């Protein structure tokens, strides 16, 4: 990837002008995909604790969607968790809403770092160079699999403790399982980005700013 | 699923967000606003009941039984049993085990054991708290499923229209709900295609499962992009970017007496949960000692 295409992506709100109808449809469909995968992440993987599924398949998807589509990926992270991992699995309204912030915040932090900072340090804001660039690999492991994932896990299990779902004594155990499970599935993200980003770019579907 | 009709040509079942429900059910015909408020108030009421120092088992049990009755009335209980029972059963058991292991309270020991250097005891008090938590969680889980199994996506669009939400936002939300079924079918087709090519399922090792999922995820994302491009072209061909409003829904729901009754009862349930512990009022402390 050349430097000129890196500089196209930024934290401006509407860097790409008005949204096309295809992008409008795409953003709705990607939210549906994240909802579906979040639901599968809870019902088709081992339940290791109250409200804690071990392999949350939606996580790498919304990270890649955030790289590609900015705030729309963040919205998918939030709605995917709220509807797919929350409401559709029987978790009530308030716990689902509070618990979904555990996905919204990591996605938002990933967006800010990749579009705002790493872009200027020569790291691909769309995550294609994780296998080629040591700096990109470091930030992916440190920021995406590490810091943001830990924040999400600590928040999610804290909410479950506050709502009386998880005993307070089990907080660290629950958070540990949550963080470990998410870190494992996040291995998929660089593969997805490497394989599909050229297609998304070729169709002109990425957002240069965080909304368009 | 197609709408099923009886001999008189009336619809017996309606397609809802999850599965389908009886067309003439009282709960199905509640206004979406009513269902939302009821859902919100009862969720708070049950959370309050669960988080009391002496959790209110009777209150959670009553909500659970009422929800179960409406699942039966709306013809959706069979879907809960077929599709969710095993999942929920495992979740309830895990829930109970966590509360028994990580909530070592009380002195009236029923059972004790050692795991390595750790000593665990199950007491009357911890068993009561565990069971009360499970019933609270069950009440909320079944309530959420009841709402999703008795609400149609067109009801949500209709409600958003009544709230005067702009056309593009309303259409965006309806597109999300409609894409859910399409993408689920696409995911299923990809899985079947991979099985036909010798792909394996249900591996225990998480890394093998990730490899298997990676093989699914790339075609799924590619198909999602293809669908969006097709849908975008179809919308544009129908003048989407120029249109100002959605076509009127076929059935427009109004707030009726049943809606007011449901709202009053759910507000009363919340008031009860805030002001009293029904289990204690009915002598719950004595029941614990009878265990």
What would you say this structure looks like, in words?
The complex is a heterodimer of chains A (212) and B (291). With 212 residues, chain A is mainly α. Chain A contains eight helices and two strands. In chain A, a hairpin with a 2-residue loop joins β1 and β2 (52-53). In chain A, α4 (71-86) packs antiparallel against α5 and α5 (93-117) runs antiparallel to α6 (134-162). The longest helix of chain A is centred in the last third of the chain and has 29 residues, at 134-162. Chain A is globular and about 50 Å long. The two termini of chain A are 21 Å apart. The model of chain A has no long low-confidence stretch (mean pLDDT 88). Chain B is mainly alpha-helical. Chain B folds into two domains: 13-151 and 255-288, no CATH class; 156-242, no CATH class. Chain B has ten helices and five strands; from the N terminus they run βββαααββααααααα. Chain B has helices at residues 32-51, 57-73, 77-102, 124-150, 153-162, 167-196, 206-237, 257-275, 278-281, 284-290; strands at residues 4-5, 11-15, 20-22, 109-115, 118-123. In chain B, strands 1-2-3 form a three-stranded antiparallel sheet, with no helix packed on it. In chain B, a hairpin with a 4-residue loop joins β2 and β3 (20-22). The radius of gyration of chain B is 24 Å and the shape is flat.
């Amino acid at each position: 990837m050349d430097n000129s295409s890196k500089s196209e992506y930024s934290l401006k709100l509407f860097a790409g002008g008005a949204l096309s109808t295809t992008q409008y449809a795409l953003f709705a469909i990607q939210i549906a995909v994240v909802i579906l995968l979040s639901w599968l992440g809870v019902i088709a993987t081992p339940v290791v604790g109250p409200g804690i599924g071990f392999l949350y398949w939606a996580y790498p998807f919304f990270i890649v969607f955030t790289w590609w589509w900015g705030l729309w990926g963040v919205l998918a992270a939030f709605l995917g968790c709220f509807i797919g991992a929350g409401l559709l699995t029987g978790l009530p309204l308030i716990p689902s809403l509070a618990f979904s912030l555990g996905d919204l915040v990591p996605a938002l932090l990933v967006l800010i770092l990749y579009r705002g900072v790493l872009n200027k340090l020569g790291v691909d804001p769309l995550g294609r160079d994780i296998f080629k660039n040591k700096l990109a690999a470091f930030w992916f492991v440190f920021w995406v699999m590490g810091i943001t994932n830990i924040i999400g896990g600590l928040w999610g299990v804290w909410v479950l403790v506050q709502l009386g779902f998880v005993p307070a004594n089990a907080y660290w155990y629950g958070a540990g399982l949550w963080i470990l499970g998410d870190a494992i599935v996040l291995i998929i993200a660089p593969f997805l980005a490497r394989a599909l980003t050229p297609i998304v770019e070729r169709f002109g579907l990425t957002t240069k700013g965080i909304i368009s | 699923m197609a709408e099923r009709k009886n001999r008189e040509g009336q619809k017996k079942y309606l397609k809802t967000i999850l599965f389908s429900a009886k067309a003439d059910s009282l709960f199905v015909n509640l206004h979406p606003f009513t269902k939302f408020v009821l859902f919100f108030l009862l969720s708070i009421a049950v959370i309050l009941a669960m988080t009391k120092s002496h959790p209110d088992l009777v209150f959670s049990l009553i909500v659970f039984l009422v929800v179960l009755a409406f699942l039966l009335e709306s013809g959706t209980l069979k879907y809960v049993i077929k599709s969710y029972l095993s999942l929920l059963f495992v979740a309830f058991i895990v829930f109970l085990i966590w509360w028994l292991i990580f909530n070592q309270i009380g002195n009236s020991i029923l059972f004790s054991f050692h795991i390595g250097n750790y000593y665990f005891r199950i007491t009357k008090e911890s068993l009561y708290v565990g069971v009360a938590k499970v019933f609270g969680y069950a009440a909320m889980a079944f309530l959420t499923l009841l709402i999703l199994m008795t609400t149609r996506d067109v009801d949500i669009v209709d409600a958003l229209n009544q709230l005067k939400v702009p056309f593009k936002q309303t259409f965006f939300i309806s597109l999300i709900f409609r894409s859910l079924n399409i993408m689920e079918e696409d995911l299923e087709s990809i899985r079947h295609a991979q099985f036909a090519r010798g792909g394996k399922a249900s591996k225990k090792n998480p890394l093998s499962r990730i490899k298997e999922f990676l093989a699914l995820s790339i075609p799924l994302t590619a198909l999602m992009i293809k669908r969006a491009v097709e849908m975008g072209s179809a919308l544009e061909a129908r003048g989407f970017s120029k249109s100002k409003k959605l076509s009127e829904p076929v059935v427009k729901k109004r707030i009726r007496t049943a809606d007011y009754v449901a709202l009053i009862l759910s507000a009363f349930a919340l008031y009860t949960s805030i002001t009293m512990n029904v289990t204690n009022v009915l002598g719950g402390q004595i029941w614990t000692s009878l265990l």
